[in-house]
Amino acid sequence: MKLSQLVLKSMQKNMRHYYLYFFALIFSVTLFFSFVTLQYNESIIEATKASGTATAGFEAASYMLYFIVLFFVLYANHLFIKRRSKEIGLYQLIGMTKGLVTRLIAFENILLFAGAVSIGMVLGLLSSRLFAMILLKLLQFDAVVTMSFSKVAVVNTLMVFGILLVIILLQMAFMVRKTTLLSLFNASKQADERVKRFSVFPMLMGAIGLGLIVYGYYESTVLFSAETKNLIVSMIIILATTIGGTYFVFRYSVAFVLNLFRLSKKGHLKLSDVLALTPIMHRMKSNAKSLTLITVLTAVSLAITTLSYISYYSATSTAEERVPADYVTVDGRETAFLTALDGQGIAYTSKTMNLTSAQVDLAEIFDKKSIELFGDNTLGNTLVISLSDYQQIDPTLQLAAGEAILTSYNGFMSNLIPIVAPLELTLLHGEHQFPIHIKRIEEESILAWRITSGGFVIVAEDAVFKELQQLNEGESFGYVTKSQTTVDLVDANKETYEQVEKLYKTTGANIFMELQEDGQVRKLSSQQTEVKENLNTFGTTIFTTAFLGLAFLLATGSILYFKQMSEADEEAESYKILRKIGFTQEELLRGIIMKQVFNFGVPLLIGLLHSYFAVKSGWFLFGTEMTTPVLITMALYISMYIVFAALTINYYKKIIKQAL
Q1: Between residues 519 and 311, which one has the greater pLDDT?
Q2: Which residues touch 659 (CB under 8 Å, ≥6 apart)?
């Protein structure tokens, strides 16, 4: 029989084993080709051209996607070879050399790759239009998305999966040549370790694992605080402790807890307990590595996706923090703009606030650990507005003699270096001092970020403000803006905003400062423009990270699914014996469901905890809202894991039905 005939007969015979591996290849090609095709879609290029980082982001995501595909396919190939280990052993037993067996499997892989790449590129081309529509929806960009075929995407996909095929062939050749004949026949029957009696060592190592995770969680809560001296070192420590702790938990803690459960039953275990506990305990040694990897990948992908979604979700609120009204003008430049609005009959409301500045000793505001960040010079500049101007925003505010409030302190600075009220503070201007009592702190931004540069604002009594204003006529501290006027449109539609945006620019109301040195003009942005810029930047980011997160999720979930399918095939004989001695399908399924709750639930639970503390440590650097994005992304991940667990249980159900 020719080698080509043997290859075809082998593929026909092993169709039950091949379809899983074939699906993994098609899925990988579809994901990669659809994503690469997006980069060359004309609608996407037009929508993302305003973002200077979109192209670089797509390229970086392509490399990350290739890593995911490589990891996924290598693992699937490893399981595929393991499931065929007895067949490979039979080939050698009848006289075929390892070289001939290697060529046989290599030809099979080449045929599989050729078919998978062809089918995957067709599916990728079809799905790329759907992904393009999703991206444009996130960017709020109106365009008709057409089917886009890119020769560059085809060449890139062929090159990438050609390299992957070479790696797969090398992996397969290494496994065949380095494995003994006896081990091939026993590969699918070996338990990782025998269940041992109670021992102090696993209890100790399990406790160390839990301690490492708890320590990593604690370090993450103070990562962006004054307690952290070296950010990079702290991040490495957090990664090392959580990953190491996760491995110890799976390797020792789980087995220890299951042993305690077994001992508590005093040998009187139900069938469901045996079916759930025994496979887990016997395979925990090798499963610890894969479960740790899956848990870490789940946590990383979920954290990245959540942080990106926080940025996108907070696009509007972030814009409102930076631009507190529809339009902001400074230093009297609003006159021509308001006249133009009146001339067009556009309804609006406006508020004008006069500004002055003073110096403060930051040591009076922040705690000792925080003040160390400022070094020896603790003097800082702050803007001051009058109570009467602030009452345009909050008419109910009243200040007693010597009282003031601190406002516009929000964002990452308020999380990094918090301020606690009430506190005593002295406004300084040369030799002049104005002691004030800060009775409360308001987070709401009342001045544009361009004016404050992220600093806080003091609302003081009118008398204090006027005296500081007079002093600043001679010498001002830090800030040169003298007034801010905010303009909010009333019942305006999209067309009105577009019309007013043009007036905002043509009347010069958007000019913030003209630099005399080089003649450059710094400009302000409207709130709508700020929102669009945020959506353009964060929309591309959330799409790429969500796409990668989906790839990670499907890869890790599929690996768990493939692994459980492999274990189900190995345990088929055991289920046949149990059915023959009288156990029902429902009794067997109860134990299998308990097993799958562990296999899918525990990695997911630990991954969710890891990602939550990772997000919680620095979410404020990405946006203004954490709770809703976290709940939405976690709900999606939980739903997908439930789907994979249900598919696994359904596969086990088929195995049990076939047992008799």
Answers
A1: 311
A2: 572, 575, 576, 578, 579
Q: How confident is the model over 627-649, as a mean pLDDT?
A: 90
- Check: CB of residue 438 under 8 Å from CB of residue 404: yes
How is residue 65 written in tokens? 């996607």
Distance CA 194, CA 285 (A): 10
At 493, is the secondary structure helix, strand, or coil?
Answer: coil
3-state DSSP call for residue 401? coil
| pLDDT tens digits for range 565-589 | 878 877 888 888 878 887 778 878 8
| Residue 121: both structure tokens together | 């590129």
Question: pLDDT per residue over 614-628, tens digit each?
Answer: 998 888 878 778 889
Q: Is there a contact between 270 and 233 (Cβ–Cβ < 8 Å)?
A: no
For residue 400, what are its two tokens? Answer: 């007693």
- Out of 4-18, 94-108, 252-266, 324-338, pick the least confident: 4-18
Residue 631: burial class (beta carbons within 10 Å; 0-12, 13-18, 19+): exposed
Type of residue at 139: L
Name every residue whose Cβ is closer than 8 Å to that of residue 215 and which is 6 or more positions away in sequence.
241, 245
Find the largest Cα–Cα distance for the chain: 103
Nearest-angstrom CA–CA distance, 544 and 549: 8
Cα angle 119, 124, 126; round to 5: 100
83 versus 481: which is more confidently predicted? 481
**What residues pair up with 361 in beta bridges, in sequence order?**
379
Closest CA to 291 of 238, 243, 247, 258: 247
Kind and range of the H or E run holding 599 = helix 585-618
Length of the chain: 660
Task: Please state, in angstroms and rounded to a whole number, the distance separating the CA atoms of residues 595 and 586.
Answer: 14
DSSP tally for the chain: helices H, then strands E: 24, 11
Q: How far apart are CA 598 and CA 403, in angstroms?
A: 59
Question: What's the gap between Cα 358 and its chain centre?
Answer: 42
Spatial distance between the Cα atoms of 136 and 43, rounded to a whole number of angstroms:
8
**Between β-strands 403-407 and 348-354, what pairing exists: parallel, antiparallel or unpaired?**
unpaired
Read off the tokens for 325.
């009204």
Q: Among 440, 439, 436, 420, which Cα is nearest to 428's?
A: 436
Cα separation, 397 vs 404, in Å, equals 10
State pLDDT tens for residues 450-490: 898 888 999 999 999 999 998 888 766 678 889 999 999 99
| Distance set, CA 600 to CA 193, 243, 294, 455, 564 (Å) | 22, 18, 10, 47, 10
Contacts of 88 (CB under 8 A, 6+ apart): 81, 101, 105, 176, 184
**What is the reported pLDDT for 497?**
92
What's the half-sphere exposure (Cβ side, CA atoms, 13 Å) at 109?
25
Global pTM value = 0.78
The C-alpha R_g of the chain, in whole angstroms, comes to 32
How far, in Å, CA of 468 to CA of 45, rounded? 52
Q: Confidence class of residue 516 from pLDDT cuts 50, 70 and 90?
A: low
Cα(109)–Cα(168) distance, rounded to whole angstroms?
8
Block residue for tokens 């938990």:
249
